[in-house]
Predict the 3D structure of the following.
Amino acid sequence: MKNTFVLLTIALVISLTSCSSYIAPSNENVSSGNEGKLTLMVYMAADNDLESAALEDLNEMEAAFYDEEKITVLVLLDRSDLYDNSNGNWSSTRLYKVKHDANGMNKTIVSEQLPCPELSLELSHDSELDMSSKKTLSGLLSYSCRAFPADRYALVMWGHGTGWRGLSLDGISYSSKKVKAFAFDDNGGGYMHLCTLREAIEDGMKDEVLEFIGFDTCFGAELEVCYELKNCARWLCGTEGLSPYSGWNYTTWLHEISRNISAGQDFFSLPEPKDDTSFAVVSLSHIGELFASFDSLASSLTKCICSEDDVESLKKLVRSAGLLFVPNAKSEAYISIYDFLSAVESEFPHLAEEIKDVERDLFNSVQTRTSNGHIPLGVFVCELDASGDISSPFPASYVNGSGEKNQCAFVKDSVGYVPTFAGGGLLGMLFRKNNF
């Protein structure tokens, strides 16, 4: 299902101009002739079973009416050779500058294919790029800033997503199975670690900061993801759980971006959504504060564990708050921070002040609400065994001190929440075996 509220929200985030907390971008290398311009980059990792959805979304972009003098939309599309045979059935990687299709929504690509020296893409022949590679994403960003300089830049990560996930090392006494993050590439057999995503943005954008990074994926709005990218963009948009196969409605989105840029409309004028949604718009400038208060609360909860009965009580509390599952795996579970706080508050009233601190920082960070007041932002909590019960092993990439080389910043910096190699941390206390 295409979520119109989601798209209107992102459009208004991009056109944010009058909010008092907004800091204008520093763009010393951009001439005044670029004032008000936006360059939007869509990183379409569709060398997988999402190939048809990618072509549909590119056609949605072409069907949109927007001011191409002010908004440049670039799409790096990597196709598969298995799932869709339309548009010439090419199965390589192409870069497009989106052009309006006067025939509206159809199955024919009319956008302008571009050469890209930074990615060694030429019009004379097709090339296959590894979308999971840091060089591919950083090359796209570098090219876009050079060839289409603008006042603001935005990036959409498109495709499969599993939040913080990275690759666990073999030889460690924790789960060593392969896990994923973003930009799944079937041809190369790879995927992009969360820390690699950050490094690619930093390398490609140099001194620029993205206006926003959007995740048209599952599990984009996780605290681990936001914390990793807090210095890369001003805003982050995504869902805390599963995202529909069809993703965003790009026709509506681009139309609203164009309309709101012209009107100078700001994000906070948007009315509340009519329907519940797990979609989140996150102000990354507040994520550091949220991380600190959340990790501190986890440390306090750890001190409340004095027996196996306490462990079992907290496990039940976690389950009562509700789990968000990674699709088709049934082995990785996330929890909504908002729901978790509500459950903790009922069981540990003496921690009320610390809970309020986290609620305040969550409220400041996440700008979207569901109709029942839910604040959507998730965090990893545990793995589940084949029967759906909580499992004790953790991937090495989520264990502080494990030696994993591709750990995300959240795991490296957490002292209260994530499990430690010695079995500490709230999750380590709850889900390791033989605690006492």
Remarks:
- The CA atoms of residues 155 and 213 lie 5 Å apart.
